[in-house]
């Protein structure tokens, strides 16, 4: 079962797609997926299962080895083995967290020095996720009082936690919930 508790219709294609999203080339992703289905294999085995040309399997293996995703048995012919799904997930998760940290640092160094000053005018933010993120940002920046009005369906656990964090900092909270059918 996947994390969504629904079986994936085509796990091979899904895995290849996700691995390319993490920066692997198509050949490396297909090679890794083939090795994951095999206990271990030679370049010929991988080529047969993945439809990656055998000569390109070696390039793909080098890419995967550089990312720590395969083990190579120095035999004749060489044999390759993918690391476990759990270790792969942890490795890619670590890479992603590192990239997010680097991005956060770079973006924070680009922010104007007066970002904390009040900005006047009407700004629009579209989409539930973006609105929640912006609201949480406001909650985190408030020092004295939050006056917050929303409809019940839009008050999620994340926003409740943000309000609780603000209250724990000594911020006065004035919250009003409306039902969607109240006119």
TrEMBL record:
Transcription regulator TrmB N-terminal domain location: 19-86
Superkingdom of this protein's organism: Archaea
Family matches, as InterPro entries: TrmB-like, Tscrpt_reg_TrmB_N, WH-like_DNA-bd_sf, WH_DNA-bd_sf
Protein name: DNA phosphorothioation-dependent restriction protein DptG
């Amino acid at each position: 079962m996947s994390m969504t508790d629904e079986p994936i219709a085509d796990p091979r294609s899904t895995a290849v797609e996700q691995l390319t999203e993490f920066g692997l080339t198509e050949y490396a992703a297909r090679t890794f997926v083939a090795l994951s289905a095999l206990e271990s294999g030679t370049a010929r085995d991988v080529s047969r299962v993945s439809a990656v040309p055998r000569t390109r399997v070696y390039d793909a293996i080098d890419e995967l080895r550089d990312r720590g995703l395969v083990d190579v048995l120095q035999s004749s012919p060489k044999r390759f083995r993918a690391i476990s799904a759990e270790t792969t997930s942890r490795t890619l998760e670590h890479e992603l967290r590192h990239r997010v940290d680097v991005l956060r640092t770079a973006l924070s160094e680009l922010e104007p020095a007066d970002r904390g000053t009040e900005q006047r005018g009407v700004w629009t933010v579209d989409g539930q996720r973006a609105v929640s993120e912006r609201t949480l940002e406001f909650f985190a920046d408030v020092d004295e009082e939050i006056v917050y009005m929303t409809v019940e369906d839009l008050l999620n656990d994340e926003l409740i936690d943000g309000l609780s964090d603000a209250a724990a900092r000594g911020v006065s909270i004035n919250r009003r919930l409306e039902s969607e059918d109240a006119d």
